[in-house]
Amino acid sequence: MISRGRVACRNESSWIAAWTSGKAAWAHATIRPQEDRSIRAGAPMTASADQKARQLYEFGPFRVDSEKELLLRDSEAVPIAPKAFQVLLVLVSHSKQVVTKDDLMKMVWPDTFVEEANLSRNIFLLRKALGESPQDHQYIVTVPGRGYRFAEDVRLVPDRELNIVAASHSRVEMEVRETRQWAWAGFAALVLVAVAIGSLFLLRRRQAIPLHATDSVLVADFANLTGDPVFDHALRQGLEVQLQQSPYLNLVSEDRIQKTLRLMGQAPETPLTGQIAREVCLRSGTVAMLEASIQNIGSQYVLNLRATNCRTGDDIDREQAQVFRKEEVLEAIGGMASRFRKRVGESGAMLQSHDVPLAEATTPSMEALKAYSLGVEAEANQGEETAIPLFKRAVELDPKFAMAYAYLALQYGASGSTELATENIRKAYELSDRVSENERFFISAYYFGRAVGNQEKARQICEAWAATYPRELLPHSFLAGFIDLVLADYDHSVEEARKGISIAPDYSYLYFLLGENSLHREHLKDAEEALRSVSQVKVQYPGLLLLRYDLAFLRDDRQAMQQAVDAAQGKPESMDWMADRQAFSFANSGQLQKARVLSRQAVELAEQQGDPERAAEFAIRFALWEAFFGNSREAKQGVATALHTAKNREMEYGAAVALGLAGDSKRAQALADHLQSEYPEDTSIRFSYLPVIRAIVALNRGDSAAAITALEPAVPYELGSPRCAVVLYFGSLYPILLRGEAYLAAHQGPEATREFQKLLDHRGIMVGDAVSALAAYGLARSYALSGDYTNARNQYKQFLVQWKDADPDIPILKQAKAEYARLR
Q1: Residues 6 or more apart whose Cβ sits within 8 Å of residue 721
Q2: Could you tell me where the DSSP H helices lie in 264-365?
Q3: CA 458 – CA 178 distance, rounded (Å)
Q4: Which of 3, 60, 628, 725 could form a disulfide with 721 if both were Cys (CB 3.0 to 4.6 A apart)?
Q5: Phi-psi domain of 150 (left: phi exceeds 0; alpha: psi -120 through 50; beta: other)
Q6: In which element (H, E) is residue 495 found?
Q7: What is the sign of the dihedral through the CA atoms of 546, 550, 556 and 560?
Q8: Residue range(s) occupied by CATH 1.25.40.10 in the chain
Q9: Which residues, in sequence order, are CB contacts of 356 under 8 Å at separation 6+?
Q10: How far is residue 434 from each of residues 403, 409, 802, measured CA to CA in Å?
C-alpha cells in the first residue's frame, strides 16, 4: 500500500460482490408489497417511481434484472460494476443490433463527458463478468470503427420471484413473498448491512491513496502477451515518461534497479517481472510496485495496470484501458498513468499542468520508443558506447523525437565528443515544444549549459527545475558538475552534490563531484571522506581514480599516486586519463621528456578507444605546457597536430593561448574572434577565454596596461573552473596568472605578488594543470621586483627544489637559475 497505515482490501472480488448484491437488495426492499409486479414482455415502463416497471432478460445461463441492477448466472449473483451493468442493459435491450460507441456513452453517461477509454474499460469488465475468453467473444462482439453488438439471443421474461441475494462474502437465500409483509423488516435490515459494506468499499476505493515524500514507486516491465515484439521495452519506458512528469511521484531509478539486481546475483538484462520485480521492490526499500500487461482480445488491445504493496502484495489500485489500434496504445498508457496519479493524491491542478500526452512527450512511433528505451537501459548497464547507436536509431525512426536527441547529446558529452553533443542538444531544444515540463527543464538546462554556454541562465533553469521536481537528480548533478564550477561557487556545488547523493546514494558520479569540489575548496579531508563513502557503491565512476590521484598529489603522497595508477591498469575507460595525469605530474616538476612519452601514450590510448576528439584534447594540453615553459616551436607543432584531428571551443581556446604565448598573436586573435562570434553568450568565453587571449596579445605588443584592462571582465569568476577546466583540466585561474604577468611587465611588484600568492592559495583548483608550477616562480619574480630579496631568494629556491630533476634545457628553468644567481 502507498499510504502508511491504510488497510488494503486483500480480496477485492468479494467486496465487489457484497456491494453489488447489497445495492440490488436495497432496490428490492423499497418496492411496495401490494404493488402488482407482473409485467408483460415488451410492456412500456412508466415514469412513476412508485410504479417502476421491472424487466428481466435471459440469455444462455444468465438473467439480467434491470430494476435491481442484478446479474445472475444459474441463480447466483455475478459481481459486476454499476456502469458495466448499465452497458449490458443497453446491449441486451438492443440484441443483435450494432450500438455505436457514441450512443453507448450518451445512454450510460447522459450528463457527463467521459473518455472513450471509460467505455472500453467497462466493456472489458462486462466481458470478464460474462466469462468471455480473449479468443472467444460469445456475447459481445466488437464492430471495428462503429461500436458493439450483443450476439446472443435474448428473451424478455415475465416477472417472477427471485430466491437468492448475495450479500457480504456468502449467499443469503430468502423467500420474498408479497403476502408476508412481516418479512420485509428483517430483509431490509440485512440489506442495510450489505449497503453499508458496499458503501464502505466504495469510499475506500475512491479515496486518494497519498504518497509520502520518501515513498518510492517501482515500475516493473510490461507483460507483453500480444506476441508483437514492438511492445517489448517501449511500454514500460512510455509509462515511466508519463509518471516522471509528476512532481509528486518518486520513481526508482534504473541505476538503483541495476544495483539491486546485481546484489541478487541477477544479470542486468533480467526481466523485471513477477517474483524478480517483487524482490527488487523489497530489497530497494520501495513502497509500491506498478505491474502492467498488454494482450489481444479479438481485434483489440487490453492494457492492465496494477499497483501493489511491495511488502504485503495487497492491491492498491487497478487501471485498465482497451483500444482498437496499435497506434492508440501510447494514448491509453497516458490515460492510465494520469488516473493512477490522481488516485495516489496528486491534485487536479498539478495534473493539468504536468500531463503532456505521451506521444508528444516522447514519440508517436512505437519502434522509435523501443529503440529509445533500449538506449536508456544500455546506458545504465553498459555505458555510452552501447547506448549511442540505439539513440541514433530512435531519431532515425522519428526525426522529431526530442528526448532521443537530448540523450544522444548527453552520451556524446560523456564520451568527450563535445561538438556532437552540442549539435544534438541544439536539435533537442528546437523540438522542445514536444516534451513534458520535466523533460523541457532537462533539455533547456543542458542546452544553455552545453550548446550556448550561458551558465547563469542554466543555473536559473536548474534551480526552477529542482524546485518543481524536488526528487529529480539531474538539476543537482548539472549544478555540481559544471554550472557552479564555472561560476566559481564551490560551496554551492558541494551542497548540490550532497543533495544529489541524498536522492541517489548509489550514484558514484556524485561522490566524485563532492570530492573534486572539496579539493577546489582546499578541504582535502572532505575529499577523502567522499572517496571513503563511495567505496561501498558497486559501480565506480572512472573519474574517481583521477580524484584519488589528485588528492595524493596535493598531499605529495607518491605511494598513493602509484596505487591509483595501478588501479587504472586494464581499464580502458581510465587508462588514457591516468597516463595524462602522470604526464601532468612529471611536467609539473619540469621533467618534460618523461611527460611527453606519457602524453603520447594518452593520445594513443584514446585513439585505440575510437575517440579522436579526446586524443586531440590530450595533445592540446601538452602544447599548452610547452608554451608556458617557453618551448614555442613544440607548442606550435602540438597545436597543429591537435587541430588537424578535431576542433571544439575548448580546443580552440587552448590553441589560442598556446599560439599567443608562442608569439603568434595573429592566429590567437583570429581564434578569439571566432569564439566571440560563434558563442556570444558563453560564460567561460566571455569571462575567461577572451580576457586571457586579449591579455596575451597585449603583452606580446608590450602594452601591459591594455593587458590589465583586458582582464577586468574576468574578475567575477576568476576563481572558477571554466568549461575547459571542467572537461579538459586546463584553464583554471589563467586570468590570475596572466594578470600577475601583466603587473610584472608593468613593474608593479606588490600587485604581482598578490596575484601569484592567490594562485598558491588555491592549488586545489589548478590540480591537473602543470601551469600551476609557475606560481612559485612568478611569486619569486614579484618579490624581487618589489625589492624583497629575502622572500625572493626563498621562493626561487623553492621553485628550483621542485624542479631539481627537470630537463636542463627548459627556457624558463634557465631564466630562473640566472635570476636567482643575480640575487645571491
Answers
A1: 485, 486, 488, 520, 731, 732, 765
A2: 274-283, 329-343, 348-353, 358-361
A3: 78
A4: 725
A5: beta
A6: helix 490-503
A7: negative
A8: 371-551, 552-823
A9: 245, 435, 436, 437
A10: 9, 17, 58
Instruction: Decide: 582 and 546 in contact? Cβ < 8 Å.
Output: no
Dihedral sign (CA 460, 465, 466, 467): positive
C-alpha cell at 80: 459486476
Q: Could you say which architecture CATH assigns to the domain 552-823?
A: Alpha Horseshoe (1.25)
Can you read off the three cell numbers belonging to residue 360? Answer: 508528444
Which residues in the chain are classed under CATH 1.10.10.10?
12-43+51-206
Per-residue model confidence (pLDDT) at position 134: 65
Place of cell 536559473: 460
Biggest CA-to-CA distance, the chain: 130
CATH class of 217-356: alpha beta
Rounded CA separation 92/153 (Å):
9
Q: Which of 443, 518, 217 is nearest to 346 (CA)?
A: 217
CA distance 779 to 215: 56
What residue type is assigned to position 455 of the chain?
A: Q
CA atoms of 739 and 708, how far apart (whole Å): 6
If you write DSSP's letter for every residue of 665-716 in order, what string do you get? HHHHHHHHHHHHHH-TT-HHIIIIIHHHHHHHHHHHTT-HHHHHHHTGGGGG
Residues 150/139, Cβ–Cβ less than 8 Å: yes
As a whole number of angstroms, the distance between CA 249 and CA 317 comes to 15
Size (the chain), residues = 824
Closest CA to 190 of 179, 176, 208: 176
Would you say 358 and 331 are in contact if contact means Cβ atoms under 8 Å apart?
yes
First to last CA, the chain: 81
Nearest to 359 by CA among 408, 326, 320, 406: 326
Architecture of the domain spanning 371-551: Alpha Horseshoe (1.25)
Distance CA 15, CA 167 (A): 9
Contacts of 709 (CB under 8 A, 6+ apart): none
For residue range 76-85, list pLDDT tens digits in order. 778 787 788 8
CA distances from 293 to 31, 231, 337 (A): 44, 10, 13
Cell of 136: 472467444
Overall fold of domain 12-43+51-206: Arc Repressor Mutant, subunit A (1.10.10)
Matching residue, cell 553498459: 382
d(CA 548, CA 515): 9
Q: List, in order, residues 6 or more apart from 409 with CB less than 8 Å away.
A: 420, 421, 422, 423, 424, 425, 428, 446, 450
Query: What number of CA atoms fall less than 13 Å from residue 45's CA on the CB side?
Result: 10
Residue pLDDT, tens place only, 194-235: 434 343 333 334 344 555 656 778 888 888 888 888 787 777
The DSSP-derived string for 468-484 is: H-TT-SHHHHHIIIIIH
**20-56 exposure pattern, b = at least 16 Cβ within 10 A, e = fewer:** bbbbbbbbbbebeeeeebebeeeeeeeeeeeeebbbb
Distance, in Å, from the CA atom of 197 to the CA atom of 205, rounded to the nearest integer, reads 12
Residue 599 grid coordinates: 602524453
**Upper half-sphere CA count for residue 117 (Cβ side, 13 Å):** 20
Beta strands in 16-146 (DSSP E): 56-59, 62-65, 70-73, 76-77, 98-100, 140-143
- Tell me if the pTM is above 0.70: no
Instruction: With CA atoms as reference, report the closest residue to 746 among 776, 787, 785.
Output: 785
Stretch(es) of the chain classified as CATH 3.40.50.10610: 217-356
Cβ pair 731, 739 in contact under 8 A: no
Radius of gyration of the chain (CA): 36
Contact 4, 212 (CB under 8 A): yes
